[in-house]
Amino acid sequence: MTAQVKYDEIEEGAALPPQTYKVDRIDLVKYAGASGDFNPIHWRESFAKSVGLPDVIAHGMYTMAQAGKYVTDWVGDPGAVVDFGVRFSGMVVVPDDAGTELEISGVVEKKLDDNLIVLALTTRAQGEKVLTRAKATVRLA
Amino acid sequence: MPINRDYIGRTFPPTDPYEVSRVKIREFADAIGDSNPVYRDRAAAQASGHPDVVAPPTFPVIFALGDTGSVLTSPELGINFAMVVHGEQRFVYERPLYAGDVVVCESTITEIRAAGRNELLTIETEVKTVDGAHICTAYNSLVERAGAA
Q1: Which residues contact B19 (CB under 8 A, 6 or more apart)?
Q2: How far apart are CA B79 and CA B121, in angstroms?
């Protein structure tokens, strides 16, 4: 496995460059198809509103996957991820016309032995945190 | 309504074998908007030290819960699915999941408890190859929201 970030060059507290990912309805439709989660709250506005939601919302696992992409893009190798967990704390509302954006940032929370580090991730939509306790343990080069 | 605590420790039968394919990995990577070549190109994956195309970390969500739905929706367990949201998710990897892996999942309900006014149920899933090699453990917590009081 070739992570591109070197353990010796990373310090606790270091901030990763933030990223912004656009989310549109088509992304949720594609995710529904790929994941097999066809819950209509993720693609049918009338249904979402009928169950009290403000609009169509993203799959939690779609949002988690974006946070995963953030980590694997930074570390350079998806195989470097040894532990990845999140708590879903808020909805990602995806309006029909403009979609929304996920703003993701990360900090090196801890350096462990064996070239492992723990990243603490922050994921926001419309300024609100949508994931909490989002952490990834990755093995660096 | 509290969820039936008698279900703590309930194990589900192993899932049918699921074959991880390059095509499915590519489709999933496309769906999450991730253009990483190790999700698409065997040569690129091998250049990164992998035997074949790698699955994204959240890929096991596709197959991990298998057909546990019939138990989770049973009246005896007592979950009102209209009120359920995904609470937490975690994957702990022994090694990456690769195209060509044929995996079987074994799930156990490890926890049912109150979380504030809500109820929380956690399912732990061991993902192993059909040869018994452990790939990852997935933890999936569902939250049944309390209705308006």
Answers
A1: B100, B101, B102
A2: 9
Residue B149 pLDDT exceeds 80: no
B130 touches chain A (CB under 8 A): no
Say if the ipTM goes beyond 0.85. Answer: yes
Question: In sequence order, which residues have a C-beta less than 8 Å from that of residue B54 and are 6 or more positions away?
Answer: A78, A79, B25, B38, B39, B45, B48, B96, B97, B98, B99
Structure tokens at A22: 């656009």
List, for residues B35-57, the tens digit of each pLDDT value: 999 999 999 999 999 999 999 99
The order of strands in the sheet holding B84-93 is A15-23, A100-111, A116-125, A128-139, A81-88, B84-93, B134-144, B118-129, B102-115, B18-19
Where do runs of H (alpha helix) occur along B40-114? Answer: 42-47, 69-72
Q: Cβ–Cβ contacts within 10 Å for residue B23, how many?
A: 9
Across the interface, do A65 and B48 touch by the CB < 8 Å criterion? no
Q: Do A84 and B58 touch (CB under 8 A)?
A: yes
High-pLDDT (> 70) share of chain A, %: 99
The full 3-state SS of A50-117, as one line of letters, equals HCCCCCCECCHHHHHHHHHHHHHHHHCCHHHEEEEEEEECCCCECCCCCCEEEEEEEEEEEECCCCEE
Contact A74, A16 (CB under 8 A): yes
Domains in chain A, CATH or no CATH each: 12-22+59-139 (3.10.129.10)
Compare CB distances from B87 to A62, A66, A87 and report the shortest one's residue.
Answer: A87
